[in-house]
Amino acid sequence: MITLEHIHKSFGDNHVLKGVSVAVPEGGVTALIGASGSGKSTLLRCVNLLEIPQSGEVHIDDTVARFAPSQKVSRELILALRRKTGMVFQNFQLFPHLTALENVMEGLVTVLKWPREKAETRARDLLHKVGMSIKADAWPSSLSGGQQQRVAIARALAPSPKVLLCDEPTSALDPQLAAEVVDVLAQLARDGTTMLMATHDLRLAATIASNVVFLEHGEVVEAGPAQQVFRAPADERTRRFISILT
Ligand code: ADP
Ligand code: MG
């Protein structure tokens, strides 16, 4: 189980996250939905400490990070949380100078110090899982956006993270290419991969999410099982948000 408790994050005067608490059940997909600017990306980035919250707590497994203003977060803690998370970005962010296979191996070899052979075996398994085996030796620039994102998903999964963080994983893609990525994410969801996914694509959320958290202006308006939030939202603001987009 991953929990975020009372997370506050400001950029200067902009109070972006206002005491956000989210529970991410193990083995499920939690969708973070909300309008652009509501704080979804910032919240994801607070989980792996790409952003450091001013206050609140992040719990992943037995690792707990507690934040307080003017208290520095140790490098060790940042690395510990990074190792328990994998991140998939909207714009893929593959290393352009590495092949698909090398992209997936990179973290295993350089960060986790795996021998190359073992890393390659793991990377080939993951490329197979995302349907990219035949492109193992391809350069990112020769791949479609959907293919690049599938490699990025394999790369994020390589160190066996406790949670896969996905930030708008399909929104840079044409519908057809988005569909291949949704298929891969849906398969991972069926396999029990724990995910926290920011998306404004309600169809994606409805397809694979087990739980939904609706953020508005940096506050959780409503959270619950996906069926319940989508079919019978308790809050008027959730109802409005869902009806605009469906
Ligand atoms: P969402 O992902 O829901 O669209 P974001 O988390 O990207 O929302 O942004 C929420 C707010 O935080 C926005 O007002 C945005 O301008 C601000 N913000 C996000 N990242 C930064 C940053 N690194 N520096 C300053 N402001 C930021
Ligand atoms: Mg965002």
- Strand ordering within the main sheet: 6-7-8-3-9-10
Number of helix segments?
Answer: 9
CA radius of gyration is 18 Å
Strand fraction equals 25-35%
Poorly predicted ranges:
none
Oligomer: single chain
Q: State the helicity in percent bands.
A: 25-40%
Taken in chain order, the helices and strands follow as: EEEHEEHEHHHEHEHEEHH
* Biggest beta sheet attributes: 6 strands, mixed
Shape: globular
Which compounds are bound in this model?
adenosine-5'-diphosphate, magnesium ion
Q: State the separation between the terminal residues, measured CA to CA.
A: 31 Å
SSE-based structural type: alpha/beta
Main location: membrane
Subcellular location: Cell membrane
Protein name: Amino acid ABC transporter ATP-binding protein
Domain ABC transporter: 2-242
What does this structure look like?
- The protein has 246 residues and is of the alpha/beta class.
- Helices cover 38% and strands 26% of the residues.
- It has helices spanning 40-47, 75-83, 100-110, 116-129, 145-157, 175-190, 202-208, 226-231, 236-245, and strands at residues 2-11, 14-24, 29-33, 55-60, 63-67, 85-88, 163-167, 195-198, 211-216, 219-225.
- The mean pLDDT is 95.
- It binds adenosine-5'-diphosphate and magnesium ion.
- Magnesium ion binds at residues 40-41, 167-168, 198.
